[in-house]
Amino acid sequence: MTPIAAFGLGLATTVVLLIIVWLIQLFTRNAGLVDVVWSASVGIMAAEYALVGDAPGGARILLAALALTWAFRLAAYLAVRMRGAPEDSRYAAARKSWGKKADLYMLGFFVFQAVIAAILSIPFLVVAYMPDAPSLWVVLLTLLVWFVAVVGEGTADAQLKAFKARPENRGKVCAEGLWRYSRHPNYFFESLHWVTYVVLAIGAPWWWATLASPVIMAWLLLKVSGIPTIEGKDAADKREGHDEYVRTTSAFVPWPPKQ
């Protein structure tokens, strides 16, 4: 299968999965499931590319293992978080503002997310079709970046969950663990995860194309659907210590807090 055909397969798979989610939310009126399935679909695309690509077997197995582990760790975390919870405020607000056309617009939004997922999957495609196996030092550096990113994101998620679970923290800002050094450490490590495949693709003919994914992900989290939705005027609740936390703590890159 050619790389273009493989890309089409990945895009079609993700579109179908998210349309199924759209159909489900017609009955549940909770669009939050799209976050879970979107995360899983990215890993599925990596597995598809690894299956149909012609790169050396070791590179394709490594690609599938890293991407699937990351994807299903994130999907499982999001699934547990949304279970029994009301619809995410982002989707609830969108549904309200779209009015009678909400279902149609939601479908368009889901398909758009599928396209974004396919664009982000381009590094997987580059690795799946690279002519030569990566060197040992490239593999080791890939594993190091992936480990730091996935463990860092998982740690940040667990720390925030544990903080919120304690009754005495109700109405307070989490400034413990990694959250002491970044207001959004989970977003930072999520962006770092995409650097994994930039490293793994070193030496590939289309290596430069892998640079787009970490840049796009960082831009989305910093400027579009991440930090702005949480720290925007509507989302920024008056939690105890919020203003001081914003003043002293890095928004993205973990860094010692200002005095």
From TrEMBL:
Transmembrane annotation, as ranges: 6-24, 31-52, 58-80, 104-130, 136-156, 187-208
Xref: Gene3D superfamilies: 1.20.120.1630
Superkingdom of origin: Bacteria
Coiled coil: none
Pfam families with a match to the protein in the record: DUF1295 (PF06966)
Keyword Transcription in record: no
UniProt keyword Lipid metabolism, yes or no: no
Keyword terms: Membrane, Transmembrane, Transmembrane helix
InterPro entries in alphabetical order: UstE-like
Protein name: DUF1295 domain-containing protein
Organism: Salinisphaera aquimarina
